[in-house]
Structures are given as C-alpha cells and as structure tokens.
Amino acid sequence: MKRFTLPFLIIAVITGIYGFGGFDLWATEAARILFLISADLFVVSLFAKFLFKKSPKRVAQQVKS
C-alpha cells in the first residue's frame, strides 16, 4: 500500500480538477466519486507509509544445545 501513495495523489488531483472544475458533463458525478475514493486511499496509504516504517532486518541466531 505504501508504494501507491503517489499514484493515488495524482488520480485524486486529476479527478478533483475534472469533477469540481465546473464542467457540465454527465461524467462529473463519476469523477467526484472517483476523487473521493482516491483521496481516501491516498490518506490511508500516507498513514501506512509513516506508521509502518521498515524495521531493520533481524538475523536469527542459532542456539546450540
């Protein structure tokens, strides 16, 4: 989900401009819905990017008995 942050932002901006730009077409309602969905997914992926940062690799050690 972290790698989709930038594409969701681009889709949200494009559909937002198209949907709320004052065009008088039948597809503006669909563009508004796509804007809201992609903006929500952008926020979720942004939170995932900052909350779940990569942790250093853990190396398993063998236990000798």
From TrEMBL:
Segment forming the signal sequence: none
Organism: Leeuwenhoekiella blandensis (strain CECT 7118 / CCUG 51940 / KCTC 22103 / MED217) (Flavobacterium sp. (strain MED217))
InterPro entries, per the entry: DUF1328
Keywords: Cell membrane, Membrane, Transmembrane, Transmembrane helix
Assigned GO CC terms: plasma membrane
HAMAP family (UniProt xref): UPF0391
Pfam family membership, one: DUF1328
Keyword Transmembrane listed: yes
Protein name as catalogued: DUF1328 domain-containing protein
Transmembrane segments: 7-27, 33-52
